Amino acid sequence: MNAANYLYLSALLFTIGAVGVVVRRNAIVVFMCVELMLNAANLSFVTFSRINGDLNGQVIAFFTMVVAACEVVVGLAIIVTIYRSRRSASVDDASLLKR
Amino acid sequence: MSDLALQVGQTAAPEATLFWILAPLTFIAALGMLLVKKAVHSAILMAFVMVALAIFYIAQGAPFLGIVQIVVYTGAVMMLFLFILMLVGVDSSDSLTETIRGLRPIAITAALGFGGLMVSLLARATLGRTAVGVEAANANGNVEGIAQLLFSTFVWPFEVVSALLITAALGAMVLAHHHRIQERPTQRQLSIERFRGESLASAAGLPAPGVFARHNAVDVPALLPDGTASAASVNASLKARGDVLDPSQFELGTIDTRVEEEK
Predict the structure, then answer these.
(1) Given an 8 Å threshold on Cβ–Cβ distance, is B64 in contact with A58?
(2) A1-84: which CATH architecture?
(3) Contact criterion met (CB below 8 Å) for B22 and B56
(4) Counting C-beta atoms within 10 Å of the first and last residue's C-beta, which end of chain B has fewer, N or C?
(5) What is any one GO biological process for this UniProt entry (chain A) (predicted)?
(6) What is the full per-residue pLDDT of chain B (263 aa) written as tens digits?
(7) ipTM for the assembly
(8) pTM, rounded to two decimals
(9) A83/B111 CB distance under 8 A
(10) Cα dist. B239→A95, B2, B93, B223, B232 in Å?
């Protein structure tokens, strides 16, 4: 098996994540799709680290994980805050600036 | 070395088997995440994708990242997601109606274009050299190798990221902090309110749910003396979820009061 197959899988997962962010309306599912995209990028980093034979890619993937963890914490806090004031977790209901 | 394919070397047969079993499953799970209606099911499928990715990391000579992936993602992040789902309401299923007209076909077309572009790009790319493999870099152990990089080349980003983590934790605490709008009533105030209110109906407390001896779970309203269901006896959130059962289905059959004629 060619190790580039991991890169194909990563590209497909990233695409699915991107579609999910656009199509789904539940803020939590949108967030999970963002996580999926970050994870797909991580898989690419790890694969390239293996192809190039140094560990820099793995360290960058590690940093990505930390940033993703921060993003989840703050994002979910925002979702809870919006849910408290609008009683809805749908991204369409948070449209106060539009009106 | 052919110029057409990204020459990254052949992997051993066991890894190929692992990949060809797990990769389609991962792809299907990710696709299912997109298609299922309930957010909880999405979360379960997401957890599967995370674990599969951890296995891929370990197979690719990144055991440290594989373990971190399981601990951080399936342990902490998915936990947090499920926790928020519980808070927001498990059955807050997506209304799968389109709010922006024509969004879905456009999104799918764009995704096909983007995915096709990425895949064809990867298929046509050349690296200019064969794969090195991470074995040499891992010679002193994967964790030791990463630690050496992390605390030499990347020590500044490492410190910045730690500041980011603390900031995020504080930010989440500030955002999720809940201010009470009015003072919490004391026991004394509650009982004064109960007895000085306009009626004394609830002075002795609300009726307990359940139909005596037939079904005493909290989802069945109690029966009033006239045989009707008492709305005050079941929890309001159960009512809102539509989980309240009809007490009439636990009634005994009508009792035949006629005396049987003796033969």
Answers:
(1) yes
(2) Orthogonal Bundle (1.10)
(3) yes
(4) C
(5) ATP synthesis coupled electron transport
(6) 333 344 445 567 788 889 999 999 999 999 999 888 888 899 999 999 999 999 999 998 899 999 999 999 888 899 899 988 888 876 555 566 667 778 888 999 999 999 999 999 988 887 666 677 788 888 888 899 999 999 999 999 999 999 999 999 999 999 888 777 788 889 998 888 888 877 777 777 777 777 766 666 777 888 777 777 777 788 777 777 777 777 777 666 655 566 665 55
(7) 0.92
(8) 0.76
(9) no
(10) 30, 67, 18, 16, 10
